[in-house]
UniProtKB/TrEMBL annotation:
Family that this chain belongs to: Belongs to the GtrA family.
Protein name, UniProt field: GtrA family protein
GO biological process, one term: polysaccharide biosynthetic process
Keywords from the named record: Membrane, Plasmid, Transmembrane, Transmembrane helix
Length: 154
């Protein structure tokens, strides 16, 4: 059985690794969000789409960017693409639904400006996506969900 100082050190190391991974996720998310918001604003400002479908189109394009960068940089996953892509799709589909609900509720229901509504939607969905991808999409196939070799033993 590990001593208390060793257990505390492992906990601190695990939390630090989780923090680094989340920081990487946020960096990747910024790139995907730039693409998402560019599509959203372009479609709305050119009159090609209402804010809700434009937000959803942006979400889909941003998801493509997110998959590639997160697989490689954030999670360093070796899960085969055939398995990771459908898992990514499921997590992204829930995020897509959350985006739709939040955008429809805030932009249409409450009349908020579409960009303000999208910021709220982004804030909610970013946490959902990080946890979904960390714990399921790109999780180590050995079923450990702890970061960088941290052990479950205490």
């Amino acid at each position: 059985m590990a001593s208390e100082p060793e257990s505390n050190l492992r906990t601190v190391e695990a939390l630090a690794a989780l923090g680094r991974q989340f920081a990487s996720y946020l960096g990747v998310s910024l790139a995907a969000l730039a693409v998402h918001y560019a599509v959203l604003a372009t479609l709305v400002e050119t009159g090609r789409a209402d804010p809700v479908p434009a937000a959803l189109a942006g979400y889909l394009v941003g998801a493509v960017v997110s998959y590639g960068l997160n697989r490689r940089l954030t999670y360093a996953s070796d899960r085969p693409h055939a398995e990771a892509t459908w898992r990514f799709g499921v997590v992204a589909a829930v995020g897509f639904g959350l985006t739709w609900l939040i955008m429809a509720g805030l932009a249409r229901g409450l009349g908020l400006p579409y960009l303000a509504a999208q910021v709220v939607a982004t804030g909610v969905v970013v946490f959902w996506n990080f946890l979904g991808h960390r714990l399921w999409t790109f999780a180590d196939r050995s079923s450990s969900v702890l970061p960088d070799g941290a052990s479950r033993a205490g």
